[in-house]
Design goal:
Strand content: 15-25%
Largest sheet: 8 strands, mixed
Number of strands: 8
Mean pLDDT: 95
Order of helices and strands: EEEHEHEHEEHEH
Strand order of the largest sheet: 1-2-4-3-5-6-7-8
CATH superfamily: Alpha/Beta hydrolase fold, catalytic domain
CATH class: Alpha Beta
Radius of gyration: 16 Å
Number of domains: 1
Distance between the termini: 28 Å
CATH architecture: 3-Layer(aba) Sandwich
CATH topology: Rossmann fold
Low-confidence stretches: none
Structural class: alpha/beta
Length: about 220
């Protein structure tokens, strides 16, 4: 279960929780002076293409939230690492993510969630955000041409996108962002591919600025 007894001690704490179809492994990142008014829930890239909760973009997100004193939860989706189950097109994965938020809410009912996902994980967090009250949705290189992001229009919603992304092409992401009910701002990164190689420091910095812009109390 969630290692909430560690919230006064900065660090990374592995844990397991029961998802919809089995046990899933995760990590709780605790910053110094953790602000328990918020919790960040992170989603990783495609489970069948090597994506894990330790992907560099995902851990960069965790570090950004850590600098903002916001704890974060991330977990290996079904069939990844020691997590049980099999890949389920983002549907089951988002169901597990919602279950994880419910576990947190049982102990911290007033917590406000920030959902942040990368690539396939952006679809998982999008679906979870549609089912949970939250303060912000962050999508990094969303796969808008592979998954349906039109059922729900969250606000606020920030998209971060590399100009040279050959997995989630920039023109498709820009077109999508303009068409959603509440147009989502796109923070563009020049000379940047899908995995933000060589751009992780910039990604963390701009994430921190964007989160602070949306959540004035941070």
């Amino acid at each position: 279960m969630l290692p909430t007894d560690k919230l006064a001690i900065p660090g990374e704490y592995p844990f397991n929780f029961k998802g919809a179809v089995g046990q899933l492994e995760g990590v709780l990142t605790v910053p110094e002076h953790a602000n328990l008014d918020y919790m960040a829930i992170l989603g990783h890239p495609h489970s069948l293409q090597g994506g894990t909760m330790n992907n560099k973009v995902v851990t960069t997100m965790a570090r950004a939230f850590k600098e903002l004193s916001i704890p974060s939860l991330r977990f290996n989706f079904r069939g990844v690492g020691l997590s049980e189950g099999v890949y389920n097109d983002g549907i089951g994965e988002s169901e597990d993510m919602v279950i994880l938020t419910r576990y947190w809410q049982q102990q911290f009912p007033a917590a406000k969630f920030i959902f942040a996902g990368f690539s396939f994980g952006s679809y998982v967090t999008y679906r979870a955000a549609a089912q949970c009250q939250h303060s912000l949705l962050i999508s990094i290189a969303p796969s808008v041409h592979h998954y349906d992001y039109t059922d729900y229009s969250p606000a606020p919603w920030i998209i971060l996108q590399g100009d040279d992304d050959d997995v989630s092409p920039l023109p498709l992401v820009l077109e999508f962002a303009e068409q959603v009910t509440l147009a989502a701002p796109v923070l563009r990164f020049s000379d940047t591919g899908h995995f933000f190689h060589g751009k992780l420091i910039e990604l963390k910095s701009r994430l921190i600025d964007a989160i602070r812009t949306q959540i004035k109390s941070l």
